[in-house]
Amino acid sequence: MIKPNFLIVGAPKCGTTTLYSNLLKHPDIFLSPIKEPHFFGSDLSYSEFRQKANKYADLFGKTDKKVVGEASTWYLYSKTAASEIRAYNPQMKIIIMLRNPVNAAFSLHSQALFSRNEVLSNFDDALNVEELRLKGKAIPVCAHRTEALHYTEAYKYSQQISRFAANFKSSQILVIIFEEFINMPHKIMVDVCEFLGVDSKFQFQVGISNSRKKIRNHFIHKMIQKKNKRLTKLFPIIIRRQMHNLLKQLNSRKAESYELSESVRNKLQETFIKDIEKTEAILNLKLDDWKY
Length: 292
Prior knowledge:
With 292 residues, the protein is α/β, with parallel strands linked by helices. 43% of the residues lie in helices and 10% in strands. The strands form 2 sheets. The chain has a 5-stranded parallel sheet with strand order 2-3-1-4-5, sandwiched between helices. The mean pLDDT is 88.
């Protein structure tokens, strides 16, 4: 049975889709055809692969490539995933991607609206009910991933990084700062290849994935999201996910760009400042651009 030997563990809206899409092109790397199986993280909400180790193994087929991985963005947030991953493969290499938490939280809310995980279109309103949602209250009926409603908790990185640091050697963990990835994509891709032990001279054509989207037709989107038992019996999970993603893509268009209000940005910066400082200490990095 082939097991993955590296994971992109998050955080969401921090460039994981771009990294995943580019690593797919490398001849020495095999990645799960499903980007986010979320096999690990028993404390997370629904996953089609939970408790189904054989189906998870099937994602990696019979590849002869030595570097095999997947990308599930909520592993970093999970309180249990790090220890579960270590139990599965103590030699696992871990890639963590981090972004200015204010911008990441804002982007997560936009994604939640697009995926119909959220009903509050005003970001400030959604932030104001986060405490209730952390207690399991005020959850929208349509929500399919409750963690994605935790707009600030999802980006308090210090404890999340610490959990992985407690389970894996520092040589097994690579941390990528999203803003550096955007500004120096080719340098970061070289760093990733060297970390994974594959040819770092491979020429990537790095493009940014997962720009803000808007639904064309909400009725069609609701039908796409709805589970179909007949399709479940007829098609394997990989085919169903590919069909689902294609239909979502066809039913979406680029959303208008809009800015986060200064008052909400200031409130979020106050929320995150202490954790940013803790993250700086853990990583031995200066993250001044995140503070102002």
